[in-house]
Amino acid sequence: MVRSSLSLLLLFVGASARASAADTARSAVTPVQKVVQLMEGMMAKGKEEKHDEQVQFAAYKQFCDDNIAEKQQAIKEANEKLEVLSADIELHTTDAAKMTKEIAEHEEDITVWAGDQKAATKVREIEQADY
Question: Is the pTM of this model over 0.70?
Fold first, then answer.
């Protein structure tokens, strides 16, 4: 009876040891499972980086769209101002040509009047001398 109790005890301890070894083997991570875990981690990190990149790109795209609209408006305004200034230049060039012509006419008049004044002065000097 002691022997059978002892055998039974050994049998129980052996079965228990085998069960715990099997549990340890089942709970230990196999190399394939480790690779799967690493790949899942890489996939999660890749998705996170993709999301971050999409957010960054969206911000950059919004900046570009705003900047394009702003620059197009500035170009439109500059072209309008260029047209106005070109018209002003043409107007003032025409005015300058007209005034140059008027100045020439006035200088001719001044020359004629100066000659008339000299002639009148001579006539008066002669008349004074005769008086």
Answer: no
